[in-house]
Amino acid sequence: MPGKGKRGKGQGKSRGKKPKKPEVDILSPAAMLNLYYIAHNVADCLQLRGFRWPGAPKSKKGKNK
Asked: Mean pLDDT, consecutive 10-residue segments, the chain of 65 residues?
């Protein structure tokens, strides 16, 4: 039966390199406007930007069902 031989493994995704995400400026005017609408106080602002204080409860990202 021609055409039926050993099949090699196909080309998979390369796991070595990940595309780099562009550097985001969290102090840009667009980011500040967005923060103005989602943060309610300074502590909330810092927590949303990733600066948490020791002992802060861990927040879950996404919507709870």
From this structure: 62 71 87 91 87 76 59
Task: Say what the pTM is.
Answer: 0.47
Q: Which domain holds residue 46?
A: 25-53
Those residues whose C-beta lies under 8 Å from the C-beta of residue 11, and which sit 6 or more positions away, are: none
Domain membership flag for residue 62: no
User: Burial of 46 by CB count in 10 Å (0-12 exposed, 13-18 middle, 19+ buried)?
Assistant: middle
Q: Are 50 and 39 in contact (CB under 8 A)?
A: no
Q: Is the dihedral of CA 27, 37, 45, 57 positive or negative?
A: negative
How many separate domains does the chain show? 1
Q: Which two tokens stand for residue 24?
A: 């985001």
